[in-house]
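seq as requested:
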Amino acid sequence: MKNPNVRVQASLDRSQAGGTHEKQIVALDEANDPDFYNSFAILESATHQISHTKGGVLVGQGIGFEGSMNWSAGGEGTGIGLVPSDPRKPGFVAQNNTLLVSANPVFPARFNARLDSEHMIGLAQQSASGKPAPR
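struct tokens:
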């Protein structure tokens, strides 16, 4: 979101928007810098549940990714090495998560449409609440 050459469309669940790291991301959008073409929505699902989709599409690159991973130290793990024979380091923490990365043109196209739909729901929710919609 800090690169004016990259367009970012982000949707963040309302229940998580107040977190320490999330506040930093929200602040980037609230800066409302006209040199950036970002659209950011704080939302809940269309059925007013937690929006827990985790993933994205690199439009123009033909790559999509989705999974249960949490993008945090607890989710990604700490004290982890990539060599299976290495002993676990003190403080080892990691969740059992999945991540699918696909360059099959069908997956990114369909997932992008789903993410766009969820984002539009969030923008409509923000508009209905009287909060300013992102650019």
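The first helix runs from residue 20 to 30.
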